[in-house]
Amino acid sequence: MGRAEIFSIASEQAVLFVPVKQIDVPPDPSKAQLSVKVRIAVDAIKSELRQGYHPLVSCSFGKDSSVTLSLTLLAILELKLEGFNVPTLHVLHSDTKLENVVVHAYNQSQIRSLRAFADSSGIDIKVWVTSPTLSNDYLVSIIGGRTIASVGSNTKCSSMMKVAPLSRQKKAVMKWIAEKEGISQKQVRALSLIGTRLEESTARGQKMTDRGESATQAVRLNTSAREYVLSVVANFTTMDIFEYIGWVRSGKISTYSDFDQLVEIYRDLNNGDCMVTAYLANKEAARPPCSARTGCWICTRVSRDESAENMLNAEDGSFAWTKPLNDLRNFIRAYHFNPQTRNWLGRSVNTETGTVSIAPNSYSPQMCLALLQMVLSIQAKEFKSAWREGREPRFELLTIQQIIGIDLLWGRYGYQRPFTAIRQWIEIMEQGKRYSIPSIEDLPTFTEHDVSFRGEAPFGDEHFFGTFSGLRNVEHATADCESTKILSDGTYVTDANVGDIFEVDEEGAELFWSFERDNALERISLNDAPAAVVHYFLGLGTVTLFKGSHGDVNRMLRMSNQIHRSGLRPHLHDPKKLMEILGATEAKPANTGRANIKQMSIFD
Fold first, then answer.
1. pLDDT band at residue 88, thresholds of 50, 70 and 90?
2. Helix axes 238-249, 260-269, angle to 10 degrees
3. In 3-state terms, what secondary structure has residue 92?
4. CA 395, CA 440: separation in Å to the nearest integer?
5. How much is the pTM?
């Protein structure tokens, strides 16, 4: 079946594929011509939308989701020509704030193009851009000592930066639809059009099959969710995807973008070679596929970020400015399993034994401080370069809200003196101090074996369960102005603002920065422990706790204050020293690894 049998061209303003007739789905759709696959995809979308579904497309603006979005727009355009009233198309985009900075700029341009296309085509499109909350801010969590970088098969980074924000955003979309339609959220029928493909990998294909994903029929993958899913390009090969992109570029299909920037991104990430080049102006020829990743600049799940390196190797040097970000990524990856970069003290006390585990968890206070210094130095250099060249900065890694968030986490975990992160900002961003990224060229290779030490030690002195050892503001109590609440176990704690998420109020942060910051840094406090910064911002009302988390904050502040009283902070990176100070008799009979290796002189 030739392409002409499937489509004809119509419209004076734009080139559009319009159906001549519907076709039957062949026995093996994966082996069909691209024109047939496109027709099947468009018909499947139209069929589901006619049943009253509200369409949602989660779009990263990579090749697969871009084609999925384009096919959805084709289907909606055809329905409009047929006189069908199509509901608002909701396009969800996840801005992790850590995307490859070149890719991030491209994504923003695609959003602008999509909104312009909505205006010119008359399609009702609502673009939702979501980002991680402070609780799921990956960079803040790493620097703040809450988590470590995801390495290898660890997908926590994706869950924090994409899955959780998109899930939250979908709930907001459901609420918006329900309010507009005058129905309950349970009555909303949503259809997610996704860009997963069977050919991507054997594992991906098997998972899609196991879940029952279909390219022609909406399926409910999660019985607890109210949305259905249509895997629009499930049967498309990588070659099909790039051939479709070639059709758009050569004018055979008109959509929200000409895909020129998309092609340039993949060319740059693939060191200038990309199969879509074969389809310029309908010139078909075999070329190698574009397989480069387009993810976060900080991604440590891969040993090397070849895409970033390909960009850095561009002959014209146009991406040289991204090198510090790649260097920092490489630094984090190289030191990840170095035992001296880890905090070895557990985060909770065993109530039965009164002991705490000695095992690697987050990065050490020294490592976290060094990471903040490097990140802010990279940002300061970019800001200064932008000012000199009369342009906007190409990236911003940390805002003042995030800096306050880091100080809160450092206080929570007993990592640094109060306001240390803010002082670092002032020193680097305002006073011009810079920190370089140490070379990893001669660094030995560290593996999981090097952080395999395990131990257990008694923890907690006579003050551990004291009245003011946890979430109690001693200054407010002294002034008789402390507002308290009672936990389920009868414990009194300082009350605080609560909400659906843990966050630093943007306006509150700006007011603090403008009017209270310098005074806060100079103030004389009754409590100079790291936890004091938590009490300060909670008392100021700048911070909102996740509802129901008072007990958890109380527990962590008891740990933080104990670390301070026991003088453990300088030794959190040394498991054997911790065992010695805490009076542990012996380590567990586990492989002790190289936990006493001395490789961290740059942090000493």
1. very high
2. 130
3. strand
4. 25
5. 0.88
